[in-house]
Specification:
alpha+beta, elongated, 3 domains
């Protein structure tokens, strides 16, 4: 302090630091307006509060206080401008520390930030987009830690892995179960309205192509171009009116009729 003792500062004439800071409302407002860029964005003075940084225990060293002003910016309901000022004994005016815009207890805040990989939903991926899988994706495991459940030729798979051309990662049991559950709960699962009115399940249809591995008995692909599920994964107990066993029965002298198992019901409807 340039050779001046603390006792000399404490004995210096003039108002106490707290009084200087409490009276500096207009100085604090001017600082908030300068940062906001518009006087209309700074509202009423809400009060002044101490900053607990240890100076309260040694008032001879000065004080730090924060003035609060209501924020009248559009979209910032419940926010306030916080202008922090400091002063030491003997100073004629406070020194500006910082000006910030802070949320209050009733402020509207943006939701917590969510990584992009967690924000994506099925169907969001478009042409040119790349969705890399993470190293800790529970749906995938290194190929050397688990058997490739979808491989039909175990011997060929071993040779491919020895040559270094096998897949680095394969579906984990959790990944297979998650996919199977999602497909069975979808539009081509056993609970769909189409399946409830079908002449038979896909497992008995000639157009049903079972999947490989442990999913073979429960899931497959439809290969009937006239079926609504053509090219899609279907549950073995799904079904539609294009079942291969739905055939026409002809009788002499009478028009062709569908067999009792082949029907197209237009009278009933589902209440959602």
């Amino acid at each position: 302090m340039g050779g001046v003792s603390d006792s000399e500062y404490a004995a210096a004439p003039g108002p106490a630091p707290d009084e200087v800071l409490a009276a500096a409302v207009e100085q604090a407002r001017a600082a908030a307006v300068e940062v906001a860029g518009d006087a209309a964005a700074v509202g009423d003075h809400l009060g002044v509060s101490p900053e607990l940084i240890g100076l309260d225990e040694a008032p001879e060293l000065g004080a730090v206080r924060t003035h609060s002003f209501a924020a009248t910016l559009p979209g910032y309901v419940g926010w306030h401008w916080a202008v922090t000022l400091a002063v030491v004994p003997g100073d004629a005016a406070p020194t500006l520390d910082e000006v910030v815009l802070l949320p209050g207890d009733s402020a509207l805040l943006a939701p917590a930030w969510v990584p992009w990989s967690e924000r994506l939903r099925p169907g969001d991926l478009s042409v040119g987009d790349v969705l890399p899988s993470t190293e800790d994706d529970p749906r995938l495991v290194p190929a050397y830690l688990a058997d490739d459940d979808s491989a039909d030729d175990p011997a060929g798979r071993v040779v491919a892995e020895e040559l270094g051309i096998g897949r680095e990662r394969v579906l984990s049991p959790e990944g297979r179960n998650e996919a199977a559950a999602r497909w069975r709960e979808g539009d081509f699962g056993p609970r769909s309205s189409m399946a409830r009115h079908a002449p038979g399940p896909c497992a008995t249809c000639g157009f049903f192509l079972p999947l490989a591995g442990s999913l073979r008995l429960s899931l497959g692909a439809c290969s009937n171009a006239f079926a609504p599920a053509d090219g899609h994964v279907v549950a073995a107990d799904y079904g539609c009116g294009a079942h291969s066993q739905a055939s026409l029965e002809r009788t002499d002298g009478e028009p062709a009729e569908f067999t009792p198992t082949a029907r197209y019901d237009t009278a009933d409807f589902d209440v959602l």
